[in-house]
Amino acid sequence: MKRLLFAVFLSSLVAGCATTIQARSDYDRAQNFSRYRTFAWMDDDPMIAARGERDRVSPLNRRRIVEAVEAELGAKGFRKTADRAAADFVVSYTVGARDRIDVLSYPEPYRGAWGWGRPYFGSRVDVGTYTEGVLAIDVFDGAARVPVWHGWATKRITPHDVEHAAEQIRTAAGMILKTFPPA
Asked: What distances in angstroms separate CA 104 from CA 4, 7, 125, 129, one per listed residue?
């Protein structure tokens, strides 16, 4: 009975961790981020996407991403400017989703129906699929026009996430931009 409770606890812990947003970033260590004061979007529609992929993200969610990024950068003291050429840095983003396969293998205690004989510990394999969503934000130096910072967040997408997309987008943008500018 203790093993069963432990297995239930462990699987709920793993499932709970898998549905949280994981954010990371990378940057050009030679870049001086302290001189950045103003930003602009790379384009009027700043989402970087392959041909036909832009339609997979709703215009409503594209607007939510823009608003969330602007709010985060504004909270950090950066000022948005409409003049891309005069901005200290320009911003773009990418959205993606892919199906993933999750394979879990664990021992399964098995004993015969009447309890006689030695216990047999075989293994059990569970295979499941899920959708992983990714939001990536890119920062380019305004003068040099080179990429200087890249941040991304990944999350296992659930039906709840789809219904509460605005909340998830704000959270992901906040987690991604938490490390911008690098210290």
From this structure: 16, 12, 6, 11
Q: Which residues contact 119 (CB under 8 A, 6 or more apart)?
A: 109, 110, 111
Q: Quick one: tokens of 84?
A: 């891309």
pLDDT for 64-121, tens place per residue? 999 999 999 999 999 999 999 999 999 999 998 788 888 877 665 554 555 555 555 5
Closest CA to 139 of 37, 29, 39, 24: 39
> Any alpha helices (H) in the chain, and if so which ranges?
2-18, 59-75, 159-163, 165-177
Burial of 122 (0-12, 13-18, 19+ CB in 10 A): exposed
CB 154 within 8 A of CB 21: yes
Residues in the chain: 183
Give the tokens for residue 119.
């216990």
pLDDT tens digit sequence for 154-166: 999 888 888 889 9
CA gap 132, 100 in Å, rounded: 7
List, in order of start, the domains of the chain with CATH numbers. 22-177 (3.30.160)
DSSP character for 111? -
Strands 22-27 and 147-157: antiparallel
